[in-house]
Each structure stands twice: as C-alpha cells, then as structure tokens.
Specification:
Elements: E1 3-7, H1 13-30, H2 34-37, H3 44-53, E2 57-64, E3 67-78, E4 87-96, H4 105-119, E5 124-126, H5 134-141, H6 157-160
Parallel strand pairs: 4-5
Antiparallel strand pairs: 1-2, 2-3, 3-4
Helix pairs in contact: 1-3
Length: 162
C-alpha cells in the first residue's frame, strides 16, 4: 500500500468538501457545538479555497494509491509579544475517512505538517482534540503532544427558552 501526502489544489476541492462533510457529521454527532465553533464558518468549498490561498495556511491531502482519503488544514499564528516573535503551528483540522484509519495516513499527514512548520522555524505546535476522543488524543500524544488547555462549555437553556 502506497501512502503519500501532497499539497492540496483547487482541483481537490470537491473531494475535500466530501471529507469535511464526513468530519463535521462525526464531530457534530459527538458535540453539536462543534459545527458552530470549530468547523468551517462559511460554505466549506469557499472556506477550503480560502485556506489554500492564504500565506500562513496550508491544506495537505493524504492519499492511498493516489486516492485522497484524508486532509490536514494547518495555520501559523503569532504567539503573545512576550514570546519574542515566536509563532504557533496549529493543526486546525485533520481527518482520515474511517475505512483508511489505522494504516498510517494520519501519521504521514501530521508528520508532513510538522515538517512544514519546522521549515518555517516554528517550534510550538497545537492540535484540537474534543472530549471523549481517546483515539485522537492517543494519536497526538504518540507524536509528542500533551494537553495544555481544556475548554469548558455550557449552554444556558434559560436564555434559549425565553
């Protein structure tokens, strides 16, 4: 089995949209707030095109036998001024379709993303993992990540019922 990772292109948008839709469904089934806070804001096709066009944003496609089965969207963000110009490499979204999990596609995509960040001189990396996502947590921990923040969330039903 040949696994590869490459820069995504505009021609990949229909497939990336399909994968993003699977990701959003999977995440929103776990936590409905995900689509409102952590997913893509506008039409996913336009958001992905925008991600491809930005200077500090990249989308990589993970492939098995030249068929796209996953993607990673990564961005670079400035850290606080006290970090003296340091930047954070952030894995915004990473997804591998269920039938392609466990064979190394996610590993290859994450390694390619980290390598791109390192080429830019970035030493700090972030990746979101939702609550209850033990496999994702284990995946990132296996690549040297450790939790640095937990975001607590609450819906005030008294406001929505008014």
């Amino acid at each position: 089995m040949h696994i590869s990772v490459r820069q995504a292109h505009n021609d990949d948008i229909p497939r990336l949209v399909s994968l993003y839709d699977e990701l959003e469904t999977e995440q929103t089934d776990r936590k409905p707030i995900w689509a409102l806070m952590d997913g893509l804001d506008h039409r996913s096709d336009l958001s992905l095109v925008h991600a491809l066009e930005q200077d500090d944003s990249w989308v990589l496609a993970g492939e098995i036998e030249e068929v796209v089965v996953g993607f990673v969207w990564m961005t670079v963000e400035q850290m606080l001024n006290r970090a003296q110009g340091s930047r954070m490499g952030r894995i915004r979204l990473i997804y591998t379709e269920p039938d392609a999990r466990g064979v190394g596609v996610g590993h290859a995509m994450l390694e390619a993303a980290l390598e791109r960040f390192r080429e830019l001189g970035i030493e700090h990396f972030d990746a979101p993992v939702g609550p209850g996502q033990r496999a994702a947590k284990n995946f990132f921990e296996g690549h040297g990540f450790a939790a640095r923040s937990i975001i607590m969330y609450h819906t005030d039903v008294s406001v929505t019922d008014a």
